Amino acid sequence: MNLAFLVPAFLAGLLVIGVPVVVHLRQREQKDPVRFPSLMFLRMVPHRTVERRRITQPWLLLLRALAVAALVAAFSRPFWREEDQAPTAAAKTRALIVVIDRSLSMGYRGVFGRAADSASAALAGLRPGDLAAVVAFDESAEVVAPLDGDLAGARSRLATIVPTGRAGRMAPALRAAADLAARARGRAVDIVLISDLQRNGLQGLEAVERVAGATLRIVSVAERNPANARVHDIEVDRRADGRRTTLTVGARIALKSDAPRVIKASLIVNNRPVASTTARIAPNTTANLRFEPVVIAEGDALASVALEPDALAADDTLRFSLASASGVPVVLQLPGGMSGDESLYLERALAISRAPTLEVMVRRGVPATDRDLDRAAVVVLADVAPTGGAMAKLNQFVSKGGGLVVMVGSRLGGSSARAPGWPAVVGRVIDRTTDRGGRLGQIDPDHPAFEPFKDALATDFGAARFFRYRDLAPDSGASVLARFDDGTPAIVERALGAGRVVMLGTATNTLWSDFPLQPVFLPMIQRIVGHVGQLQDPKRWYPAGEVVSLPAVGEALTLRAPGNVGRPTPIDSKASTQSLLDPGIYEIGTLTATAPIARFAVNPRPSESDLAAADPKEVLAQLKAPTDSTSAPNVAPLSAAEQERTQSWWALLLVVALALLAAESWYTGRFGRVTVAGGTR
Amino acid sequence: MSRTAPSGLLDPTVLARIGDLSLIARTVVEGFMHGLHRAPRLGHSTEFSEHRPYQPGDDLRRIDWRVYGRTDRYYIKEYEADTNASVVLALDVSKSMDFGSGGVTKLQYAKMLAAALAWFSARQGDRIGLILYADAVRTYVPPSTRHLSLILHTLERAEAGGIGGGVDASDSIAELLGRTGVTVFLSDWYATPDFVQQALGKVRVRGHDVVAFHLADPAEKTLPYHDAASFEDLETGERLSVVPDTLRERYRAAVAAHAEELELELRRTGVDYAAVETSNPLDLALYEYLRRREMMERVR
Questions:
Q1: Which of A200, A409, B40, B49 has a CA that sits 20 to 30 A from residue A477's CA?
Q2: Residue in B232, B235, B255 nearest the CB of A34
């Protein structure tokens, strides 16, 4: 390594150091004479003219000279030049393959401009007879300009490249470059990879082989200290209120920055701003923002949470869809003689469910009708057993994918103790009042119904006391999800056709247990209903690159992708899925319907917002060595400008110069001279 | 009789802004006298002058009862100060006095001090006179008890000019001072001590008590300049290239030695020497003068 300067002409500025030296020499007299009462005593004192050449205040002079030197050095842009590692190919004609990153992160303010400049500079170095190709890449690589001698065409096509909203992966791009290099036919091949070298984009590089015989130059255009805020996720609570719904939205904001920032976020519903909020977020943390509840019309809607644009504006907005607030229909069948107090806890547990919202249809003393079963996703039997044809319809309902929850209490037993399709035979009542009640002793922590309680099963369920419960005898096809502390099955499940049946061995009233009074009761009931009904909270947004299933409507589908403002394009009739490649709104429709039948909100991949950059050497280290060892790959050294930019000593020198100037000010203020007027005239 | 030094609150730069020497003199003297807590006629006895008929309003204590017993009429005893001294203020107005590094030049300071001394002496009942001189006597106001306003007016009009500093004019000054009294010199004494001693000795031998105020600006004593410069003599216009930093200490030593030698020489001649810096309050100088006068009184 040796010291070099990017702009050595600035070194001429070192002559300026002579200025403070001259100032500190005492050879110059003041222009105006000092009028003094008498020279009598000055004449009495002998003095020599040689003293007048002495340097005054040498420390101050040193500070000033160093400050000037540091400033000059900073402007000269010094760097340590790395020795050239590649043999020159000056004698040969060249084949230059420019591989430029156009992923979302390249949209950071100034980054893509630098990348384009670097690419243009690389192309400008070509001579007539050389070949050039341009490859642009995000998640996939695209040969924008093929490898040929049309240098002007390559430059013009380079100018058309803009950042996309997709993630960036270098591996496909380098493979595409290798394919192009194979067509270079004896020319010296230079591959210039221009990217912000996002760490997330390095995946798969270890499987990519370096191009044998070609030089690979990696130009990092990454921002040195990027700061970026993005909407990480949203939380939606939408509740029906007649024809309108109350919408409450919370947003999780992630800030990657060394400094705190005040962030203003807006909630936009159907392209109309409806609420905004502001929060101060500490460096490198996430914060939850909550918008004031707003009232919106019932029905599907599109919404977004938008931050004030920052240096990377592409990830400042998170779009999401709002499904209708109407709940999932659930039939709650109660025995005729059951009092309101006895069913209170179960009814409330189902009514207040929000993930998903349930529409509870209570049938007291009457069986669920066919219409009920057609609408319902889940049927809950609270200490009641349908008989005859009703039971058959219920089993048919379950077999088609419906869910059934059976809770056994004092009323079930005897003839109703066994029903076809139920997971267990209901036995006698076990009375535990004498030993202060039983507990749930064994719970399957991996079952979806208990998954949220996995970390604190003993704490959450251990407090509940069960005074009475039924002795359940599980069916051969059933599985026991939980047992009481005496080993008696407490919760049993079995599959029936496409549906599921779960049976609880105790009643959900306070006579049989204090379980309904425990905090864990509500979420557990909701989880069990969601599990048997196979209910899922609708997905509100998808990351770019996700694949979704297309709705089966029996006719040809059309697609309006983000940025497609014209007519929707038909979808291949054989296709059952659709890739959501770009951030925005995808609308699926039919040729006959005017309104879309499905809409998907797509946002940039969260990983693309992570701007942590790798070092070019790290990228090179990940690449696989070429199998042809006789033509070892060459790694081109960085150009002088790139080396200087990588090292950036100028910034340090500028700081040093400022510090020296500050010290000079302090020194002057503290020890500087005091000028006295020459007298009153 | 005990006196304490005055408060020293009469800043010359503040007084210089007043402009009216009469007012300045009165302010200085009245403030000074207030600080002394004593009757204004200091060190002077009184002596019977005449009788006059009593008039309503006269102090009953001044009625001469013996005359009343003899004449059956009321007469008042009147007295007259017995020590009406002649005080002459000799003010150097040479060009070197026109220097000041602060808010006031030496000449301004000297004029204010002279005015205050004149006012003070007038209150004492002294005859006061004024001599303005440089290389020769410029103005002479003979001593009189009625010349206060004339002296103040003359002082106000005085301007710096000429060279010399009193040594050359000493013969003329000595001739002007006929009657014995007190002569107060105010000068920056830019001359060798033996010359000054010789000049003031001429006045001294005529029986005058001499007080010599040595006025100096702080910059003259400390030479607080840094940049190399050409120093121009205010009186002669001569120039000398000087690097103050290199000779400051030696300059200060020379100035201090000159002042010491001057004081020694003048004391030897019987001249009271008082060094005054123009940054000091005026009443300090006044106090110094008063102290000298007292010493003279005691000696007599």
A1: A409
A2: B232
